[in-house]
Amino acid sequence: MPIGQRVPQDKINLRLILVSGKTKEYLFSPSESAGDISQFVFDNWPPEWEEEAVSKAEILRLIYQGRFLHGNVTLSALGLPTGRTAVMHLVPRESLPQPSSQEDLHRKKTSGGGCCGSCSCVIL
Predict the structure, then answer these.
(1) CB 82 within 8 A of CB 11
(2) What is the DSSP secondary-structure string of 60-73?
(3) What is the pLDDT of residues 19-71, one digit of tens each?
(4) Largest alpha-carbon pair distance within the chain?
(5) 1 within 8 A of 16, measured Cβ to Cβ
């Protein structure tokens, strides 16, 4: 989207940032999902991103506020306001990381017997 141009009130201007730091802006409706966005970007891959091109849309992942977005999450579900610009990272990744279960989290906290892993703390 050109600088100084207003975002339509029924759209969200999405500024995508690659790992290389290159950016590109696209307009999307709030009902579009992360999967829709990945497919659209793949189908309309910018020439200036040629070095970062991927082989298929399914490996493109969006990151918003530090979290990977699953393909069915819509922009409206994220609470993104229309008529504004939002920023997301776009990265190639075959699969999403699995969320840790409470049991894994408890095991990590209690392994090693101390609060610091392999060391032990003594309170005098």
Answers:
(1) yes
(2) EEEEETTEEPPTT-
(3) 999 999 999 999 999 999 999 999 999 999 999 999 999 999 999 999 999 99
(4) 64
(5) no
| Residue 73 tokens, joined | 């999450």
- Tell the residue number behind the tokens 């999405």, with chain if given: 14
**Alpha-carbon distance 30 to 10, whole Å?**
8
CA distances from 33 to 39, 40, 70, 78, 115 (A): 10, 11, 9, 10, 41
**How far is 15 from 28, CA to CA, in rounded Å?**
11
Sheet order of strands, 23-28 included: 23-28, 12-17, 85-92, 60-64, 67-68
Enter the tokens of residue 68.
Answer: 């990977």
